[in-house]
Structure formats: C-alpha cells, structure tokens
Amino acid sequence: VSPFWVGFRGGYIRAHQLALLVVLACSGCQRPVVYVPAPPPVVQPPPTDPTPPPPPTQNPPTTVAEILDKIDLGMSFESVIAVFGRPPQDVPGATPANMSRWYVVEGEKTFLVFVVMDGGRVVRKGSSVVEEVR
Amino acid sequence: MKLDSVRSFKQELADRYAAGVIELDPPMARFFEATDPQHYDSISLGVALKAGAALSDFVVSIRSSDPAAADRIAALAHGEVDVRIIPSIDARSTPQWLQARRDPLECGVQVGLQAKNSVGTLGCIVRDNMGRPYALSNSHVFADGGKAPIGSFVTQSGKSSAEIIGVLDRFIPYSGSTPNLVDCAVVRLAKVRILPRHNLAIGGDIRGVRVVTPDDLGAHVFKVGRTTGISTGKITSVEMDNLPVNMGDSVPRFSDQIEISGGPAADFSAPGDSGSLILDAAGWAVGLLFAGGRDGKGEDFTYANQLSFVLQRLGMVLA
Predict the structure, then answer these.
(1) Residue B217 confidence (pLDDT) above 60
(2) Hey, CA dihedral for B278, B284, B286, B288, is it positive or negative?
(3) In angstroms, how far is the first alpha carbon of chain A from the final one?
C-alpha cells in the first residue's frame, strides 16, 4: 500500500484530496478573522484665538471654624476682608481702630468674628456667640 | 513697709481716727449722717505702692477732701503715706443720652432708667442660677440708688418704649450705718440680642472673675464705657475704706474699693461710665466702676467695687 493513500470508508483517497476536502468543509462554516489596526488619534489643532479659562471660583467660607481657619496670624487687612468677601461691620466710634468685626450666621446661630490688628497685620482672632433673649 | 505692717498701721489710724484721737472736724458720727457733700470732710485709707520703690514696698494711701486732716494723719505716719486731696468723689452717671441704639447689646453700651435721667454703662451680662441673662450696672444707674421700684423699665438709647431692654430685677441698697461694699443692680433682659462674653476693652472674650489684691498695685487695667469708650489705667490703691461717694442726695461710704488712675494727663473715666466692667491685661474681670474724683493737681481717680463681691451679693455669675 502506498503511503499516499489514506483509508477512507473502506476505500482509499490520496492525501492531497483529503486536504482539499478539509479546506472546503472549514471555509463553509467559519469566516476568517481580519485584524484592522486602530486609526491614529485625532489631534485637535490649537485654537487660533485662545481664551484663558476662568479662574477657579472659591466661595467664601461659610462656617466660623472655616473662616478662622483661613485667617492666619500675620495676614494683611485686605486679605482678611477677602476671606469674608465683605467689609467689616464695625460700630463707628465704638469698635477700636485696631479691631474689626463681622457677624456670621451659621445655621440658626449668629456669631461675632473679630480680628485684632497691629502694624497692619492680624495678631489675634476669635469669635463670640450672639445670644437671643426671648 | 511690708503688706502686713501697712495693713496694721492702716487699721490703727482708722481706729484712732474713729475714736477722735486725731481730733478731726467733723467727728466720725457725722460721716454716716452727712447729706451735704459741699461741707463734707473725711479721710479714706487704703494700701498703695510706695512711689519709686520696689513692688513689695507698700504705704498707706490717704484720700481726703480736707488737706489739714490729711496732713495730720500723714504726720502720724511719718511720711510713709500716699496722700491725695480729692474735693469730691461723685457717682459717675450723667443725665445726657448720647449713644445710638446698639444691637446686639454688649459690654460698654449706654443704659438708663426710662423714667429717670440717670444714664450709665452696661458692665457685662450675668446669669442667675437658672441661667437667665441679666445686664449688670450700678444701683445708681439701674435703680436710682435704690429709689426706683423693682420692675422699672430700663432702656438703651432713649426713653421710648421701643428702647426697653428689660426691667429692674434686683439691687443692693446703700447702708447708712455700715460701710458698703458694692453699688450694683441687675436688669432682667427681654427680647434683645446679646454678646454675653465679648468685651471691646480687651478685644475678645472675658476669661472670668478674680479678686484684686495688693499684688495688683501698678497693674494695667482696661474698661469700655459709654462716655470715654476704651481707656487704660493703673491700679493706684486697693482696700480703700471709708470712701464717701456723692450720690446727689446722699453720701454713702464704701469700703474695700479699688482706685484707678489713667495718669496725670488722661482720665480713666468720666460721668456716664458708671457701671463699666474693669478688666486686667489678661482678660479677667476685676471691678465694677462706680465713682470718681479729681485731685488738686488735676489727676482723675476712678473707684470700683470688687466684681467678686458684686456677683456674690447679687447671686449672679458671669455669663
């Protein structure tokens, strides 16, 4: 028997004929996988008239603890006003020149927040609760 | 002199004075009956620092409206005294309403009886044993020296009903027979907003209450008052006894008082500052301002009760 003959159902076919049969059977039930490379990333060209992004918005601190935390000893008066976002609520003729005070509402409570300045710099800060007598 | 020696010597002078040994005119008995401050002579004794000496070197302080009487006592003390001639020591209220309404109420604002022209200063907020808030000032501010009925309205900046901050709750009446320690009254607050512990004179919250002792002589103190605002002074005498104070229609005597001076050129207080709280440099409340007078050289002296006595007598604590 020739080695080129493979037994098949009691008969014999040639090896190249068997290979042809296998190829035909596979091509009928399976599609070949095709690899398509990803397109290169699209790079937007820089705008011709760039507008600077808006500065990050910082809401003024709302609680007394936050406010006092943001006021550092040695800070300038302008910086303190920036923390509150508004000028002080001093009593003309009563609040001493080296002191500034703000009222801060926190929940249902009102607090007096104050700073004491020396040489244009904060040397002391604190708060005191306002009590409502009914 | 050491403190114990000065105290003994002060007591000896007071005893001899009271017994008439020093032969002052008028006699001691008149002190308790005097109603005419224009002809009222007296000797008040206290403890002061010896001028230019160490902090532990004390002398007897003599305050008198009668230079001759002061000279006689000074001679007995061999010059170891601090003498000031003060013609009249007056209660420091005023009939003038000056300040606008303040909200919230705090130490140093103007207060007075709605029915009387007697304006002074709200010293501080105090509380009773139930925690209810009251305004503290002098009896001659809130109670017209004891003549105003309990329940009288007290206002802040005028006489309209809209200005009412509370009602007179209690006061300590002046005694005519024994020395007074305090001139104080409290008003029960209603429908107001308050800053209980904040005091502009120290730029922060009051730390608490403490007693003034001879160790405090020369120490800086502060107050915020309705007339002169914030001022600074030094304690010039303590344990001041037999101090006559002109209340207008009576001259009660006060003992264990604190004397303060702003110096020769600056007054620590003026009429209308009665009731101001006096604090030390560390923020402790020490006194309740109630009177003052100018000596012959023009230096103004302010007198204050020990705050601890005030609170004790009224049954109150600092808010």
Answers:
(1) yes
(2) positive
(3) 119
Task: Return d(Cα B119, Cα B96) in angstroms, integer.
Answer: 7
Query: Is the Cβ pair B189, A98 closer than 8 Å?
Result: no
* A63 touching B (Cβ < 8 Å): no
Q: Do B203 and A96 touch (CB under 8 A)?
A: yes
Could you give the CA distance from residue B107 to residue B276 in angstroms, rounded to a whole number?
8
Chain B residues in contact with A94 by the CB 8 A cut-off are 102, 108, 200, 229
Count of helix runs (H) and strand runs (E) in chain A: 3, 5
Would you state the structure tokens that stand for residue A66, as one six-digit string? 């936050």
* Rounded distance between C-alpha atoms, residue B246 and residue B268, angstroms: 19
Report phi then psi at B105, rounded to 5.
-70, 140
Give the H or E element holding residue A12. Answer: strand A11-14
Distinct helix (H) and strand (E) counts, chain B: 4, 24
DSSP B246: B
Write the CB contacts of B154 (distance below 8 Å, at least 6 apart in sequence). Answer: B111, B112, B113, B114, B135, B142, B164, B165, B166, B167, B168, B187
pLDDT single digits (tens) B182-214? 999 999 999 999 999 999 999 899 999 999 999
User: How far off is chain A from B145, nearest CA to CA, in Å?
Assistant: 27
Q: Is B164 helix (H, G, I), strand (E, B) or coil?
A: strand
Q: For residue B65, give the DSSP letter.
A: S
Q: What is the three-class DSSP state of B254?
A: strand
Name the closest residue on chain A to residue B102, using Cα atoms: A91
Is B37's pLDDT higher than 50? Answer: no
- Partner residues linked to B277 by β-bridges: B288
Q: How far apart are CA B156 and CA A24, in angstroms?
A: 109
| B-chain residues near A102 (CB < 8 A) | none
Classify the phi-psi angles of B176: left when phi > 0, otherwise alpha if psi is within -120 to 50, otherwise beta.
alpha
Comparing CB atoms, the residue among A93, A124, A130 nearest residue B104 is A130
Question: Is A91's CB within 8 Å of B102's CB?
Answer: yes
Q: Which of B195, B206, B230 to mutate to test the interface with A (most CBs of A within 10 A)?
A: B195
pTM value?
A: 0.81
Contact A112 B190 (CB under 8 A): no
Enumerate the residues of chain B whose CB falls inside 8 A of the CB of residue A134: 190-191
